[in-house]
Amino acid sequence: MGPATSIGVDDVSVTDTWDRLREDPLSRLVDVRTRAEWAFVGLPDLGQLGKRPVLVEWQTFPDNREDSQFAERLTAALADTGATRAADIFFICRSGSRSRRAALAMVEAGFERCHNVADGFEGPLDPDHHRGRLAGWKAAGLPWAQG
Question: Which of 107, 136, 138, 142 is 20 to 30 Å from 15 by CA-CA measure?
């Protein structure tokens, strides 16, 4: 587990996230990117773990406004999966910024074990201004599927 960088939310590497999702049947992965990102960039594939990512947008596309109903919508979506407020919830976005804010919002909503997936799904830009090569879920070779 990575160092705590915000109250109640720590950074966890993508490989540690995968391991913890595999080891703990109650843990969940929440992808907070936009519908467009899910469709065109791809999604983490948790099929071999017998799980699916929980998909709830943190910001709406194309206006990029934070969803004022995010916590309520995610609470309901997590309840639908059987997750409790004490479950380990891992939040992922493109590179780790939106997911951190989303995780903090859920800590404020009473979820006890929220984690930010460091470097997200695609990681930082490389020297050619492309993502998905230097760090993140894709670069680590973890399972993913096109939306």
Answer: 107
- DSSP assignment of 49-117: GT---EE--SB-TTT--B-TTHHHHHHHHHHHHT--TTSEEEEE-SSSHHHHHHHHHHHHTT-SEEEEE
| Domains of the chain: residue spans and CATH | 4-145 (3.40.250.10)
Task: List residues bridging with 116 in a β-sheet.
Answer: 11, 91
**Spatial contact of 54 and 86, defined as CB atoms under 8 Å apart:** no
Secondary structure, 3-state, 12-57: ECHHHHHHHHHHCCCCEEEECCCHHHHHHCCEECCHHHCCCCEECC
Q: What is the pLDDT of residues 1-54, one digit of tens each?
A: 444 444 679 999 999 999 999 999 999 999 999 999 999 999 999 999 999 999
Q: How much is the pTM?
A: 0.91
Measured CA to CA in angstroms, residue 18 lies from 46, 60, 110, 143 at distances of 9, 27, 24, 10
